[in-house]
Task: structure prediction
Amino acid sequence: MSEDIFEIGGFKLESRLFTGTGKYADDSIISDVCEASASQVITVALRRVDLESGTGNVMDYIPKYMKLLPNTSGARSADEAIRIARLARAMGCGDWIKIEVISDNKYLLPDGYETAKATEILANEGFVVLPYINADLYVARSLVDAGAAAVMPLGAPIGTNRGLKTREMVRILIEEIDLPIIVDAGIGNPSEACEAMEMGADACLVNTAIATAGNPVLMARAFGRAVRAGREAYLAGAGAMCRHAKASSPLTGFLSED
Amino acid sequence: MSFYPICTEYNALPLNERFESVTESDVRRALGKTVLDAEDLLSLMSPAAAPFVEEMAQKASQLTLQYFGRTIQLFTPLYLSNFCTNHCVYCGFNAKNKIPRSQLELAQVEEEAKAIAATGLKHLLILTGESRAKASPDYLDSCMTVLRKYFPSVSIEIYSMDQDEYARLVDSGVDGLTVFQETYDEELYATLHLFGPKKNFRYRLDAPERGCKAGMRVVNIGALLGLGDWRKDAYLTGLHVAYLQNLYPEVDIAVSLPRMRPHAGEFQPTSIVEDRDMVQIMLAFRLFSPRLGITISTRESVQFREDILPLGVTKMSAGVSTAVGGHSQEDDSQDGDTVGQFDISDERTVDEMCEALRKQGYQPVFKDWEFITDLQ
Result:
């Protein structure tokens, strides 16, 4: 098979699994998770970053080869997301930014309008913007216009591990949006990540399902393999699906008989 | 808008009869749901739910893990001042108690800040008694210029303020408000708060909402369990949570579950919240509101704090002193015992707390917010 490289923001990636840094019992496991999953991109909430910490900084546990994707967790408006993104860059976290604007703490659903506003301003400032959104075609289109580098629709509400509940809407985004589609949030099992990839998603971001697993490192490896399997299945082109068993040519076989 | 009419309505209801009339099947129904309403909360706080605590605990533990992971956020209180013009009969700082009074000068605030920052803590809760003349809004503003250098997140637990006063503190870098109603029973409240501004039940009750409107990120409420009928106060706290969450979805609403502790002064708890009651209340809160922050203070014993860790706790205080200047100053009071607001039970240092948390498979989180200044 020819090399399958995923390019985003001018950066070439071999792995299509993005991982996270939240909810671990001990951050020191993060480097093992990265290695086991083969992931090359990791998201970290700027609110958690503490460069002066004497008590352990999450950044200390992220392998140097990982591409850092700081996120704006905690932002309630475009303005707050923009400020957090600028702080992240000033703190040395690079130019990539995952925009999260959430002003509903009950369901933690992203605010598409504020996200689009922040995306436009930050893209103009030279950020590689990866916005986290509900799987909504209109919001996704506005993000294309705003200069996003990818679109990150949720599979289910964040942290719920409920799987690919937005399946049909994600499928529409894959068909219609000419940017990488990275399914983010809600994926609870490797099989669901695999399904998203089979559908043609470009990548998946998984945090909670790995961090809260009984064995996070083993689960990270499982997700890494599932995403790869799903991608390969997509590239292979699945056979058509049928509800009943099919013999080769039961009705017209006689035509080829001598 | 105000929670007051709802509170008044519930105060007029025969709540104890309703708690008593909950059946086993009501509890089972509540336990089977993913989205719980006020009736379900009542069922889970009722005596009928007591035999179901293990089942509740299993579900609460899973929800907490899902939404918060294996993490506990740490903070510590900093007492700036204990001057007080209130007479709250249950409080060690009340105006009638003959205790040494003091307020930190800015240089002392800096010393305290340095001493706390040296432990690694980044989330601070600043407290004062109720004395606008001493711990004025201007004074608090000045303190914030010092504290912002050391702490990315500062919450306040002070006298109730107007919305614009809260907004001014938000601009100074305060991101959280803690205000306890003490009891939601208005008649009882009047007998416990004999004089001073805190006597105004409704002004206190509406303070969390003013904080939400003023832009606070986290608003932490609670009742001092044991002052009145704990079951009723816990239930009203839950309704207050739901009221605030529905109107201000952008604000993180959190609860504390303080139980009465012995303190200077004659008033002692009128009802006792046993450990099993406390656990039931906490589990009911978690099932009712899976994303709710739940704070457990050092009023509780080391053992109890460790036992309840997996059941829904998200925040814990550590390295606590409830005395003014208690973090950096030697105890030089005449009787060799500086008076705090209440006696603490868990006296572990921050390092000891962290070690214990890690041993239980939890990550102590020191920093979970960044003061978002505008760099342009």
